[in-house]
UniProtKB/TrEMBL annotation:
Cofactor(s), by name: Mn(2+); Mg(2+)
EC primary class: transferase
UniProt name for this protein: DNA polymerase III subunit epsilon
Record-linked InterPro entries: DnaQ, DnaQ_proteo, Ribonucl_H, RNaseH-like_sf, RNaseH_sf
The organism of origin for this protein: Gluconobacter thailandicus NBRC 3257
Keyword Magnesium: yes
Function: DNA polymerase III is a complex, multichain enzyme responsible for most of the replicative synthesis in bacteria. The epsilon subunit contain the editing function and is a proofreading 3'-5' exonuclease.
Transmembrane intervals: none
Source species taxonomy: Bacteria, Pseudomonadati, Pseudomonadota, Alphaproteobacteria, Acetobacterales
Length: 228
């Protein structure tokens, strides 16, 4: 039995060396390259502002993260969940760089990229040279439903990437409970929020939209670690 971890992050920007920080981490357990029902998900207070440009990407403002734990408070739980398993990510250098910057800030050892990283961008480029290798492009190639992906969201992106990864590995038993309308059913209300909000609306949000957004974010402020 081979265990690996597929993960994704959302951040305040593109470069931790310039002070950008993680605001969301999601990770899904794979056994023999197929997703299980075990996952880890947490929103993180970045201890800084979130630029408007970043909010346009993932939809989160610093006000949404008031009361969320800081990375130092969730580091041990995250490390316990991932263990010593290989780590799969789309553009893995980006996510590894951010995670390692956060780990170093709180006195933990960084993850070794060379021995642990599996980059699905590199896999896709080798399998389909000259073709687009973005997550959206690969989902379209494999007919994976993108209807809920209005903005970037680490947990939803992990679920989509899990399906893409199975296809890149040969398409064995694609989905295993992740595909279709029930994909997010058990994950902290993410499906309802992502399906119903209008993330790029330019008009001010209504009271109902603000209430739904606040309820969704409040539900993510405690780390979620599901192990069946």
């Amino acid at each position: 039995m081979k265990r690996s971890i597929l993960f994704d992050t959302e951040t305040t920007g593109f470069d931790p060396d310039q002070g950008d920080r993680i605001i969301e981490i999601a990770a899904i357990e794979l056994i023999d390259d197929l997703p299980t029902t075990n996952y880890y998900h947490v929103m993180v207070h970045p201890e800084r502002d979130i630029p408007a440009e970043a909010t346009k990407v993932h939809g989160f403002r610093i006000e949404d993260l008031e009361g969320a734990p800081k990375f130092a408070e969730i580091a041990d739980g995250f490390l316990e969940f991932i263990g010593d398993s290989p780590m799969i990510a789309h553009n893995a250098r980006f996510d590894f760089k951010f995670v390692n910057a956060e780990l170093e800030k709180c006195g933990r050892a960084p993850l070794d990229y060379v021995s642990r990283a599996i980059d699905t961008v590199e896999m896709a480029r080798k399998k389909y040279p000259g073709m687009p290798a973005s997550l959206d492009a690969l989902c379209r190639r494999f007919n994976i439903d993108l209807s809920q992906r209005g903005t970037h969201n680490a947990l939803l992106d992990c679920q989509l990437l899990a399906e893409v990864y199975v296809e890149l590995m040969g398409g064995r038993q694609r989905g295993l409970g992740l595909a279709g309308p029930s994909r997010n059913r058990n994950i902290t209300g993410a499906a309802d929020f992502l399906a119903n909000r209008s993330p790029r609306k330019m008009a001010p949000p209504s009271a109902e939209e603000l209430a739904a957004h606040t309820a969704f974010v409040d539900g993510l402020k405690e780390p979620v670690w599901r192990r069946d």
